[in-house]
Amino acid sequence: MIDSIKRFFENQLKVQPAETPATKNHRLQLASAALMIELLKTDRHIDEREMMVFKAILMNTFALSDKELDDVIQLAEKEAQQSVSLYDFTSLINEGYGYEEKLLLIENLWRVALADEHLDKYEEQLIRKTTDLIYVSHSDFIKTKLKVRDELNNKI
Predict the structure, then answer these.
(1) How many CB atoms lie within 10 A of CB 44?
(2) Which of 73, 110, 123, 128 gives a 20 to 30 Å CA spacing to 149?
(3) Residue 85 domain boundaries
(4) 115 burial via Cβ count (<10 Å: 0-12, 13-18, 19+)
(5) How many domains does the chain have?
């Protein structure tokens, strides 16, 4: 259950004694992916459109290997009804991401949440909580939401 997702991310996200910039970046990417997993689970229904956007973000933005992508997606589907603490992931984000990278993460969370053309109140709540935990301003929370919503509206 929840232990499997915790073990996966503990193994992948723990700080190594002689960490290289590449391994640090890898941990940050996995922490960001974990936040998106949590977002996918919030409305108790993983929509195919949300999953497609999630996969595209992981592949394009985070450059995860095929195995890592499969592992993360498998855990997300398996643990869809469970919850994990956001703090473990947001603390890594705070340590390793600059403000612009945090804004991109919030934008990507909005992209996943809005992919099914329905914003669930729990999705918005999770993005708001994440925004607070990674010290992104409320005005930027709103700006990123409007930016992504406008991008989606322009595609229609």
Answers:
(1) 9
(2) 73
(3) 2-155
(4) buried
(5) 1
Among the residues of 2-135, which ranges form H helices?
A: 2-13, 21-41, 48-57, 66-78, 87-96, 99-114, 121-133
- Would the pLDDT of 4 be above 70? no
**Count of alpha carbons within 13 Å of 128, Cβ hemisphere only?**
9
| Tens digit of each residue's pLDDT (9 = 90 or more) over 58-105 | 888 877 778 878 877 776 565 444 545 778 778 888 988 999 999 999
First-last CA distance in the chain: 39
Phi/psi region, residue 119 (left: phi>0; alpha: psi -120 to 50; beta: rest), is beta
Alpha-carbon distances of 85 from 19, 31, 35, rounded to whole Å: 24, 12, 10
Per the CB < 8 A criterion, the answer to whether 7 and 49 are in contact is no
Amino acid at 68: E
pLDDT tens digit string along 13-53? 554 555 677 766 766 777 788 788 888 888 777 789 998 99
123-155 tens-digit pLDDT: 999 999 999 999 999 999 999 999 999 998 887
Residue 123's CATH number = 1.10.3680.10
